[in-house]
Amino acid sequence: MKQTLMEPFSLTLDFAAGRIEPATTRIERRLSDMLGMFADAAAEAAAMTDGDPLIYEVLQYDVPNETGQLVVCTTVLHPGRIGDEYYMTKGHYHEKLDTAEVYLGLRGHGKLVMQADHGFSGLDMHSGTIAYVPPYWAHRTVNTGSDLFVFFAVYPADAGHNYGAIEHGGFGQRVVDRDGRPMIVPSNKGVEA
Ligand code: S6P
Ligand code: ZN
């Protein structure tokens, strides 16, 4: 097995801004990058005419895509809603399904929704929350607050990202605003979040 011999290194993380310094990759996701993922198509179209809002950014420090290596990154999820549905990430399974991930909340409030063949999970996240995404679980984060929701993540560099399953099959639960409070709505019935 090919393994790059790495030198130890350190990075700086601004908890409030979610900035990793230096970062080697910055991904920006606007609404136009995730059209069709929110339930309310009319609200999506209205938000697009308002200027294609920035939904989230990912900052990452890349390492070789090899078994044994770990990637560190941050996600800065902006506050907002499309219809009654809070801004969220696209969500994905890892291509290597048997790889896990750890999230650490740095700022704001959100939910980490997950789904696997046998069920769903919805965890609250805020500054200081450590959340574990086990192998085989698709994961998506949602900003349920009025501030930025910022979190740090560590995952295996060779995990890969499978977005297609969520893009085509959707997520089995949504996080929506009900009278100013976040509710997780799996399929048709609402459950108090
Ligand atoms: C990577 C990890 C996160 C997400 C990020 C954006 O495995 O789960 O860094 O990439 O939160 O979400 P998504 O679904 O667009 O990759
Ligand atoms: Zn992941």
Structure report:
This protein has 193 residues and is mainly beta. The chain has a single domain (12-186), classed as Jelly Rolls. It has helices spanning 41-49, 164-169, and strands spanning 12-14, 19-21, 25-30, 54-61, 70-77, 81-82, 85-86, 93-94, 101-107, 109-116, 119-126, 130-133, 138-143, 149-156, 161-162, 173-178, 181-186, 191-192. The strands form six sheets. It has a six-stranded antiparallel sheet with strand order 3-4-5-14-9-12, with no helix packed on it. Strands 11-10-13 form a three-stranded antiparallel sheet, with no helix packed on it. It is globular. It starts with 11 loop residues before the first strand and ends with a strand. Bound molecules: D-sorbitol-6-phosphate and zinc ion. The site of D-sorbitol-6-phosphate has 13 residues, from β5, β13 and β14.
Helix content class: under 10%
Mean pLDDT: 95
Task: Please state roughly what percent of the residues sit in beta strands, choosing from under 5%, 5-15%, 15-25%, 25-35%, 35-45% or over 45%.
Answer: over 45%
Calculate Rg over CA atoms: 17 Å
Q: Roughly how many Å apart are the termini? A: 45 Å
Find the CATH topology: Jelly Rolls
Helix run count: 2
Looking at the overall shape, the CATH architecture is Sandwich
The largest beta-sheet arranges its strands as 3-4-5-14-9-12
Classify the secondary structure makeup into a structural class: mainly beta
